[in-house]
Design brief:
mainly alpha; about 0% strand
Length: about 90
């Protein structure tokens, strides 16, 4: 029960933050811009972003090695959260 409550609160806070971050967005314009995007360039952007995320997570693993072993997934998750928090 406690885990379900924590999950619910986490999702609720995330949705609230998403609302405040996007409340002034013109979604029709966003849709028009995305419809006009070139799929190849969009795929390249996603690919480069994922490679960058992976490299930065690996760097953190190397930097934290003296403190103990860090698995890849937690390093990736922490790096992605850091990207999101700084944006």
């Amino acid at each position: 029960m406690r885990t379900a409550l924590r999950s619910f609160v986490g999702v609720a806070v995330s949705l609230l933050c998403l609302y405040f971050a996007t409340r002034g967005t013109d979604w029709q314009r966003v849709g028009a811009l995305l419809a006009g995007a070139r799929p190849g360039w969009a795929a390249a952007l996603v690919g480069v972003s994922l490679v960058t995320l992976y490299i930065r997570a690996q760097r953190w693993r190397v930097l934290l090695r003296p403190m103990g072993h860090v698995e890849l997934y937690p390093a990736l998750a922490a790096t992605a959260i850091g990207f999101g928090a700084s944006s």
